[in-house]
Amino acid sequence: MYIAIESFLRSMRIERNASELTTKSYSEDFSSLLDFFQDRHGTVPDPAEVTVGMLRAWVAYLHECEYARNTVARRLACLRSFFKYCCREGITENNPAKALRTPRTGRRLPNFLTTDQISTLLDAPPANTAQGLRDRAILETIYSAGLRVAELVGLNTQDWDRDADVIRVLGKGRRERIAPVGSYAARALDRWMEVREPDSSSDPDQQNAIFLNRFGRRLTARSVGRMLEKHLASAGLEHRISPHTLRHSFATHLLDGGADLRSVQELLGHKSLTTTQIYTHVSTRRLRETYEKAHPHARSRQNAVDPD
């Protein structure tokens, strides 16, 4: 089992360009399954020995441990992919995970900030310190380009085209896209680059990063989260906001401003339009206004004329 899993993860990295985060999540899913087998059966079976009943027992165990439905669904997707790979490679003859039912997960509506809240947050970092200039550039860039935090910290200096005001982004599945950068973010980046000082003793990957920590090395996603929490507190905003909330706000404000869904999909780097459609709920106000203007029987009650 261990050899098959390692071969599968290697295939994910090479053939499907899976990110480190994805392979790490899959590794954790496999660890949960292997620990379960060891505890229940005293040994880890070969892939060909795994039955539907054994996997169902594991799923029941996950529910007993009160794992979130999204977590269970992801682990089942991981197993299906693994056994599909095993069938393709001749390791097993069938896919025992294929018969398992995925729990209904629903889809949580994305949290987002209003334009006024965004303005308050973006003004929170001080403009008279190097760290403040960096933080302003980070927040402006995430909101302006709709970046994931992993995409942000992965940016290198050569990824930013100053003349065209665009950045080259390496997204999920190592898919590249070009993201436009607005004038506010471009100015913030310019000011940060003027004071940016990489650690000359570090390796080139560290020195090339656009966003650096106080030691002059590439900033981490966790550091961005801590930075955001600090500025949320100083701005008096909700503490549960994450860097991803700025990405949600980016998509929400685009749609509310009249952007079409397909364009927003491209800007976000979503592989499927279905993923982007979740943001349409936030445009209810705009849709209502359009409806009232276009439909002959949709005028507001105050302006309606009684036909009698």
Task: Show the helix and strand layout.
Blueprint (H helix, E strand, L loop, with lengths): L1 H14 L4 H22 L10 H13 L4 H20 L26 H8 L7 H16 L3 H5 L6 E2 L4 E5 L5 E5 L2 H13 L8 H4 L13 H15 L7 H14 L4 H8 L4 H4 L7 H11 L14
Antiparallel strand pairs: 1-2, 2-3
Helix pairs in contact: 1-2, 6-8, 6-11
Explained architecture:
With about 300 residues, the protein is mostly helical. The chain folds into 2 domains: about 1-100, DNA polymerase, domain 1, CATH 1.10.150.130; about 115-290, hpI Integrase, Chain A. It is about 55% helix and about 5% strand. It has helices spanning about 1-15, 20-40, 50-65, 70-90, 115-120, 130-145, 150-155, 185-195, 205, 220-235, 245-255, 260-270, 275, 285-295; strands spanning about 160, 165-170, 175-180. Strands 1-2-3 form a 3-stranded antiparallel β-sheet. Helix 1 runs antiparallel to helix 2, helix 6 packs antiparallel against helix 8 and helix 6 (about 130-145) crosses helix 11. The longest helix has 22 residues, at about 20-40. The chain is globular. It starts with a helix and ends in a 14-residue tail after the last helix. Mean pLDDT is about 85; it is low at about 305-308.
